[in-house]
Every structure is written in structure tokens, then in C-alpha cells.
Design brief:
Number of domains: 2
Number of helices: 15
Distance between the termini: 21 Å
Helix content: 55-70%
CATH class of the largest domain: Mainly Alpha
CATH superfamily of the largest domain: Heme oxygenase-like
CATH architecture of the largest domain: Up-down Bundle
Shape: globular
CATH topology of the largest domain: Heme Oxygenase, Chain A
Order of helices and strands: HHHHHHHHHHHHHHH
Strand content: under 5%
Radius of gyration: 20 Å
Number of strands: 0
Amino acid sequence: MKLPHPRGSLSHAVIDLLSSPVATSNQPRLADEASTAVGATSDIVTDDDLQIALYVMYELSYRGFDGVDDDWEWDPELLRARRVLEDAFEAAVRSRVQVPTDVAPERAAVATTLFAMTAPTPGPSVARYVAKRATREQLDELLVLRSIYQLKEADPHTWAIPRLTGGPKAALVEIQADEYGGGDPERMHCELFARTMRGAGLDAEYGAYVERIPAITLATLNLMSLFGLHRRLRGATAGHLAAFEMTSSLPNRLYGDGFRRHGFDEGTTEYFDEHVEADAVHEQIAGRDLAGALAQQEPELCEDILFGAAACLYLDDLGGEHTLSAWTAGRSALRGIA
């Protein structure tokens, strides 16, 4: 994919730096610029400049960018700047989420808490809106918003595999193997989603719509990368994945209903239909055999497991509120481009 356009002074500095080879770079004090930008923002979670800068830094550890030297992934100055953003981002999220307390670090207790945290609630949601009210154009927007993660589906959580052992590791591998199609590239969930995008007449190239993705949607993906790329946050990764899977099956059924309401065929709705069944199984594995078993195996990770779940739910709620408020007001939920 191509480097996105900057959205402010920090992302301009990051993108400008990545446009030159590591060996010939003047290595400006990017960490100082990151500190200045963090100090100036009113909310890092919804700051377009800081979230796109962090997204670009993280993408160096995934597929990279056309014409960008791969050596930038481990450049010390870039990593120092990334750490400044990560620390501020993590602190902001930790200060806003409520993590259940007094939960015993036992398989059953942690799983029960996670299922309670993710239990369906009444009221408006993007999935219910899509099922009953979304216009054809809003369906396209839904796919564009989700594409930033779904076209790399499962990758951020996969970072945790070598950081786990025993039962939790086996549980994560079992979930991820399904996500990657059980060895069949045509059944990989990212490919099923790409098929849905093509069925809707959209560009299914990886990163094709990054310019239209608002900060809050970038933040949901950046949170996954933050957890996944740090061994100390392996508990948060497990909790995040558990909450992610536990809140997937019912919404995907409603998404599929919304697309069928507009006349889309089974090939286009297959991604959603696949997740109705798969995630009903995955939520049990993630809640009990991954997150619950990890808490029992490493009790000191229990709080972070619950934090990861709470953080997942918090950012998903913020993203849903952003989308619903735009759609019900007759506006686009996508970021405008000047």
C-alpha cells in the first residue's frame, strides 16, 4: 500500500521521514515532536494526526508501504517516537475504562466475568441499524470502515502466539487457524471479507481506503497492535480477543440481514454468515480456554486480561457512536478528504 497523506504536523514528520532511506536520513528528533503533539492534543484517541502517525508506525510491522525501506521498522528514533504515542494512548484508555475488580484468577471466574461484560444490551447499535434501516450507501461505508482491520483479520492477535505456553497457546492457535481458513487461502476470513467488498463494487485492495478512515476507527486497530506488539500486554491481547469474539456472532447475523435486505447474494453475505457460526464457537474457546486459562496459569495477568476486554468494548462503543450519530444525522461516517 502507499503511504497515506499526513493529517497534521506529527504525521507529516513521520511520513516525510519514511520517504527517505534509513541510511541517508538526518534522523530528526521525532520523539520530541511526538511529545509536543501529545501535549497539545485534547484527546489522543480521536486525534487524526496522532492516530494516523501511530497507524503508519505499526504498519511497518505488518505489510509495510510501497517504496519505504523495511529497515525503518526497527529504527531507534522511530521506535522512541512510537513509544511516546503508545504510552499516551495506553494511559488515556486505562484512565477511561472500568475494569472489574476482585475477580479470582481462575478459569471459570474470569470466563464468567467476560461473558457478563459482553452480554448484549438493549438500545441502538450499528448492527441493528444496518439490519433494519441502513441505506445502500451506508452499507458501503460499513465495509470501508471495517476494511482497515478485516483485510488483515486476525493478524494483530497472532503476535501473542509465541508469548503464550500450554493450553492458552493451543486455544489461540485453534482460533487463529479458523481465521486463516484452516489452510485454505480461499477460506481465510480476510479473503471472505475482500469477496464481500468486491460484491458491493468496492476496492478490496489492502489499505485502499485508509484516507477515509476516521481517527476513532484507526484507534480500534491501533489498540490491537499496541497489545499485540508488546509481550507485557499479552494478557490484554487475550482479553481483547475474548471480548472481540464474544461480541461478534449476533452483530454479524444482523449485518448479513442488512445486506440481504438490499438484495445481495450468498457470495457477498458469506463473510457475515461464516462468523455467526464460527464466532459462537470462538467465544467459548477465547473466554474459557484462552483468557480464563491464562489467568489461572499466570495470575498476575488477570487484571490485564480484563483490561483488554474492557478496552475493546470501550473503543468499539466509541466507534459505534461515531457511525450512528453520523448516519442518523444524514452525514457520512467516513472522513472527508479536502
